[in-house]
């Protein structure tokens, strides 16, 4: 293996998610963000449909999003206690940058919706890996806002669009302990046809 291959593999073998709450600024600058998004969008995409898009939430928009989330949550659940209010107000401010990956999968004569949705998942994964490669850390979260129609409305989602996830990106402040990974023997087998 070349040094380059080794480095790329090491990156994949060492990446892990960092809790959004542990991510600090500064956020990636504009040029770095463009590189991350370009890498993220370089995914297999049957039919070249680009059935996904990005929505960037950063700076003061994170607080504004939190205020709107709180209003939506209280409208559905009634007044929230102090801790839950704080949680909603600060949800998008946990990291300096949040990239919403939005799936635009739609019925197509040739390309199954499932394949389009898998492609959106690949975008999220590439974004995590690219962030790691650029010295940032990240976490892919959905949480309740990803499934709420009022939140979809708040972020200008079109009919049929869904959040594949919110990818929180920032500078790492802690090295999270490794978590158990599946045993290869339990998830990989060889079909011999015998
Ligand atoms: C589609 C998707 C949605 C997720 N949503 C959440 C979530 O809402 N809350 C949560 O704690 N973890 C969520 N996770 C898990 C974390 O992103 C992550 O898998 C976990 O922190 C361990 O990450 P690692 O194996 O990359 O280190 C989600 C993962 C995926 C793939």
Automatic annotation (TrEMBL):
Required cofactor names: FMN
UniProt keyword annotations, A-Z: Flavoprotein, FMN, NAD, NADP, Oxidoreductase
Residue ranges of every copy of the Nitroreductase domain listed in the record: 26-171
Domain of life: Bacteria
Residues given in the record as FMN binding sites: 15-17, 42, 46, 140-142
Signal peptide: none
Protein name as annotated: Putative NAD(P)H nitroreductase
Organism of origin: Stappia sediminis
